[in-house]
Amino acid sequence: ALPISQVKIMRICSWNNFIYILTISGQIYQVSSKDFSVKEIKLHINPSKPEINIILDFSMDLWGNYIFGEMRPGQVVVFGADYNYQYTFGESGSGRRQISRPRGVVRDDFGRYFVSSIIRCRILMFNKERKLLREVGETGVDDGQFTFPTRLATDGKKYLYILESSLNRVQILDVEPPPSLNSPPDYPQEH
For residues 65 and 30, what is the distance between their CA atoms, to the nearest angstrom? Predict the structure, then answer.
């Protein structure tokens, strides 16, 4: 059993009948929703040049990839379902079209990535090839404006949910893809 009382949980998400827990110290645990068995996940990190250092957020996508918001530099880091490093993307910085402290990272069923740049108060949208499509928002408290967007969630198809903890609110963005984008792929088989 996972000693929950001894673990400081940073983030929790689910995929394919499992719950994944990211601890404050960077460990990932997989908990079966069937029998509650626990397995520690060991990502294959390069010890001479670690791909992740300071994790700000964690989620999993439809394909079982591990997605991290990395503080230094402010980028998104992805590991595959096989625990191997896949790629890093996003330009770090505080200027237009850049990521500064990615506190929310999610991927929808079409393969698009959504990243909250908490310091810039923007949401950046990337296609499945990790090319920046657009950024939305500006600093403020009105609809479509953000004040430190801290977490993101998606229904996978049409809506992006943006938590602004400091304002105690959730904004909902319609991010339905254009008709030219193919329908979402089938869910992967359990492995």
Answer: 13
Element (DSSP H or E) covering residue 66: strand 66-70
User: Residue 83 — left, alpha, or beta (φ > 0 → left; ψ -120 to 50 → alpha)?
Assistant: left
Spatial CA neighbour of 80 closest among 70, 94, 66 = 66
The token pair at 89 is 């993307």
pLDDT in tens, 121-163: 999 999 999 999 999 999 999 999 999 999 999 999 999 999 9
* pTM (global) more than 0.85: yes
- State whether residue 7 is helix, strand or coil: coil
Q: Do the Cβ atoms of 2 and 29 come closer than 8 Å?
A: yes
- For residue 155, give the amino acid letter: D
